[in-house]
Amino acid sequence: MGPGQEGKGSSRTTDTVGEVNASERNVELVRRFFDADTQHDPKVYLSFFGPDAEVDFSELDRPYSGVYRGPEEIERLYHDLRDPWYEKEFEFEDLLTSDDRVVVTLTRTARSLAGPRLTSRATAVITFRHARITAFKMFASRSDALEAAGLSE
C-alpha cells in the first residue's frame, strides 16, 4: 500500500500532516466503532457519538428506516438492531476519506437467536467532529454514498 492509502479503492489526498492524521484517526475510529457494534455494551457503542449526532437510515428499505437524533433515539436504535441478533460481524470493502467524512462499504453478517444468518451490504457516510460521530448516513447504493461525500467511483 502506498502513501495516503487506507485500503482498496482509497482516494485520500491531503495537503498537510494534520489532515493526514485526522483522516487516519477517523478511519481508525470507524473500525473501532463497528467493532464496538459487535460487542454487547451500548455505553461503549454510544460513546462514539457526539451529543447532537444524527443517524439516518431513511435511504434504506428496512423496518428501522428513519432518522434518529440525539443519544436517546440512537440508543433505542442500537437496541432495536442489536437485540434480535446473537452475533454480528462486519467486513470492510472500502474505507475512503473526504475531509471530515469516511465512506465505508461493508457487509454485515448476523445470526439471530433462532439460528438463521442474514447478510446485508450497504455504504455509510460517517462525519466526525472532534473525534466523535456527528452524522451517520447509510445508503443502499455505494454510488449515492460517494456522491453525497463529494467523491466519485
Please bin the fraction of helical residues. Answer: 25-40%
- SSE class: alpha+beta
Beta-strand portion reads 35-45%
First-residue to last-residue Cα separation:
19 Å
Which shape, going by the Cα principal axes? globular
The ordered string of helix (H) and strand (E) elements is HHEEHEEEEH
Number of domains: 1
The CATH topology is: Nuclear Transport Factor 2, Chain: A
Major β-sheet strand ordering: 2-1-6-5-4-3
Mean pLDDT: 84
Radius of gyration: 15 Å
Largest sheet: 6 strands, mixed
CATH C-level name: Alpha Beta
Q: Give the number of DSSP strands.
A: 6
The appropriate CATH architecture is Roll
The helix tally amounts to 4
Uncertain residue ranges: 1-17
Architecture overview:
With 153 residues, the chain is an alpha+beta fold. The chain is 30% helix and 38% strand. It has a single domain (17-148), classed as Roll (Nuclear Transport Factor 2, Chain: A), CATH 3.10.450. A hairpin with a 2-residue loop joins strand 5 and strand 6. The two termini are 19 Å apart. The model is unreliable at 1-17 (pLDDT under 50).
